[in-house]
Design a protein that fits this description.
The chain has 159 residues and is mainly β. The chain has helices spanning 4-15, 61-70; strands spanning 21-26, 29-34, 41-46, 53-56, 82-85, 90-93, 109-110, 115-121, 124-129, 134-139, 146-147, 152-158. The strands form 3 sheets. A 4-stranded antiparallel sheet has the order 1-2-3-4, with helices on one face. It has a 4-stranded antiparallel sheet with strand order 5-12-10-7, with no helix packed on it. A 4-stranded antiparallel sheet has the order 9-8-6-11, with no helix packed on it. The longest helix is centred in the N-terminal third of the chain and has 12 residues, at 4-15. The radius of gyration is 17 Å and the shape is elongated.
């Protein structure tokens, strides 16, 4: 099976070159990365009969800036607010399980190590920490929503 870090490196390699398609097989696992235009698709499949997992590859840093800016609340003054952004493409979850309370809500105080959400990528649950001490002003993503690399998820008023 491929490690997430290996897949990220392969995506960067394809993104930074003129290569439009890359397919690798290793120990019964196969990965295929295609770059048709601006959207890259990663297809991971094991030799056993396992359903395909498709993940949109992270855009280049220049391309990531535009969606991040576009997803901020329009006409809102963000000066003095810290944005907690998604470090990857994945599914946003506000709670550790469907019947558990949210990690944080608007008005909650957080510190730099407070887990604010979970991002699921390729069946791996990745906790995301606040990175700053302050108060959650707004939750910008919906539970279960697919989020992009660099997309703002929370607004925090730093202390």
């Amino acid at each position: 099976m491929f490690k997430l870090s290996e897949i990220k490196e392969l995506i960067k390699l394809v993104d930074q070159t003129s290569v439009h398609e890359l397919e690798i097989e290793n120990e019964g696992a196969r990965i295929s990365i295609r770059k048709p235009g601006r959207t890259e698709v990663v297809n991971v499949q094991t030799a056993a009969s396992v359903p395909h997992t498709y993940v949109q590859a992270a855009p280049s840093p220049a391309a990531a800036a535009a969606p991040a800016e576009a997803s901020t609340p329009a006409g809102r003054d963000l000066s003095g607010l810290h944005q907690i952004v998604s470090p990857m493409v994945g599914t946003f979850y506000r709670a550790p399980s469907p019947d558990a309370p949210s990690f944080v809500n608007e008005g909650d105080k957080v510190h730099d190590k407070t887990v604010v959400c979970i991002l699921e990528a390729m069946k791996l649950m990745n906790p995301l920490e606040a990175e700053v001490k302050g108060e959650i002003v707004e939750v910008l993503a919906q539970n279960g929503q697919l989020v992009e690399f660099g997309q703002p998820l929370f607004l925090v008023k730093p202390e």
